[in-house]
Structure formats: structure tokens, C-alpha cells
From TrEMBL:
The protein's name in its UniProt record: Chromosome partitioning protein
UniProt xrefs under InterPro entries: DNA_Partitioning_ATPase, MipZ, P-loop_NTPase
Domain of life: Bacteria
UniProt-listed CDD domains: ParAB_family (cd02042)
Length: 256
């Protein structure tokens, strides 16, 4: 059985597709067989990213490790046949969920061996995980955390293993240090109550927007002729290396 990685929350603009593309491509570049499914049937950012990559490689006559893009089926359960097709050839399957609550997203969470939840480092995104008092006290889980709890219960009833849940603090800025500490403290408190791990994600960088039209990632830059990486690009590669290490997937040794 392939190890299923779900990247999801219920808010757009948190960096889910960027995270999905970089995690999936990093695994492919480390020699693993990787499949991907985009469950956002309207926006399709992750699918477009992979399609852009395949088109760019064809135009440039390049052969770079690339995740296999799966196709959702039709009918009442489009996810199961797509997963069954990918599981024939893949070690890892990454599911990129939409930034809203859908039946497909809910089903994906019940299948997750590893769940990665990118959040912008603010209390606006934190509200998806927990309700807070005006004084900053965590009152209890909110809508998305309750959905993950439901997915965990369904997995337990089916005899499946636990979900390893990692919350990524994306767009960590150097400004507003007081607010950053408050968000960090609230996440640490909540993580102990509802069972997730906290990891630093990606900072806000122009390079991510520039790479999308060609379907490239930070790990591909030298392969397309970029001889010297900027300090920002080097720092971003380190963020990706730290992320893959922190996620701690089975049989994965970070070697980039």
C-alpha cells in the first residue's frame, strides 16, 4: 500500500499547492515513486503546476523526476478508483485538498497516513483550528480540527493506523515578533490538546510565484542552468530540507 499524504485545511491562500508540489517533487527527486491528485476540481492549482512542469520539460527536452498526475474518476466516488490506479506504481500518493469543506476533502482526510496543514502565521488562520477568547485563551477546537478528529475516529473504527498530523507555520515574517510569539504559544498549547506537531514551513518569497508557470521547484534550478543561487533561494531550499526532515516519512532519507 502506498503511503498517503494529505495536504489540507479549509482556507485558501495558505500555500497548500506550493507545499504539495515541493514535497511531491522532493520525494521524486530522492528516488521514490510519487503520485499526485488534485481534489480542488475548480481551481486545480496543484494539477496545473504538474501540467506546467510536463509541458516545460517537453519543450526544453529535459528529463527531471516528476510526480505522476492521477485523474479523478466519475460517479459518486471519484477518489477510490484514482487511488487504486496510482497505488499500482507509487510509493507515496499526495492529495492536495481545496480550501473549503467538500465531500472529496473529507474522504481524503480519512485516508491520510500523514496530514500536512499549512497555515499563514496569523490568528485569522489559527481560527480554523481553535476558538479563542478575546484575552487569547484557547477555548476549544474549531471547524477544521473537529473534521480531523472525525476522520481519526473513522480510521480507528476501520482498523486503520493513526494520522500523523503536522501543522506548518507558513509565511513566518521577521516583523511583528510579539504576534508571532503569541501564535506560536497558542499552537503549542493546542497541539498538546488535539494531537498535532508544529513545524516551520515556507517564508513568503517571490521565487515561488516565478516557478509556477514552468512547473519547477527550488530543487530544479541548477538543472535548468541556474549556476548561482541567491541567498533567498538557498534559505528556501533549507526550509524545504527542514520540512521533509520534520515530516519524517517512512523510508525517506533527505539527500538534497
Amino acid at each position: 500500500m502506498a503511503h498517503i499524504i494529505v495536504v489540507g485545511n479549509e482556507k485558501g491562500g495558505s500555500g497548500k499547492s506550493t507545499t504539495s508540489m515541493h514535497v511531491a517533487t522532493a520525494l521524486a527527486r530522492m528516488g521514490h515513486r510519487v503520485g499526485g491528485l488534485d481534489l480542488d476540481v475548480r481551481q486545480r492549482s496543484f494539477a496545473r503546476y504538474l501540467e506546467n512542469r510536463m509541458a516545460f520539460l517537453k519543450r526544453s527536452d529535459l528529463d527531471l523526476p516528476t510526480p505522476q498526475l492521477g485523474v479523478l474518476g466519475e460517479g459518486g466516488d471519484p477518489l477510490t478508483p484514482a487511488l487504486e490506479q496510482l497505488e499500482q506504481t507509487c510509493d507515496f500518493i499526495l492529495l492536495d485538498c481545496p480550501g473549503s469543506h467538500t465531500k472529496l476533502s473529507q474522504m481524503a482526510h480519512t485516508l491520510a497516513d500523514t496530514l500536512i496543514t499549512p497555515l499563514n502565521d496569523s490568528f485569522v488562520d489559527f481560527d480554523l483550528l481553535a476558538r479563542m477568547s478575546p484575552e487569547g485563551k484557547v477555548l476549544g477546537p474549531s471547524i477544521y480540527a473537529e473534521m480531523v478528529w472525525s476522520a481519526r475516529q473513522m480510521r480507528a473504527q476501520a482498523g486503520a493506523g493513526p494520522i500523523d498530523w503536522i501543522v506548518l507555520r507558513n509565511r513566518l515574517g521577521t516583523q511583528a515578533m510579539h504576534n508571532k510569539r503569541k501564535v506560536g504559544g497558542a499552537l503549542t498549547t493546542l497541539s498538546k490538546r488535539i494531537g498535532f506537531r508544529v513545524s516551520a514551513g515556507f517564508s513568503e518569497r517571490v521565487i515561488f510565484r516565478e516557478l509556477f508557470p514552468r512547473g519547477l521547484t527550488l530543487l530544479d534550478l541548477k538543472d535548468i542552468g541556474t549556476e548561482q543561487l541567491s541567498m533567498s533561494n538557498i534559505a528556501a531550499r533549507q526550509e524545504l530540507r527542514d520540512l521533509i526532515t520534520e515530516v519524517n516519512l517512512p523510508d525517506v532519507t533527505v539527500n538534497f
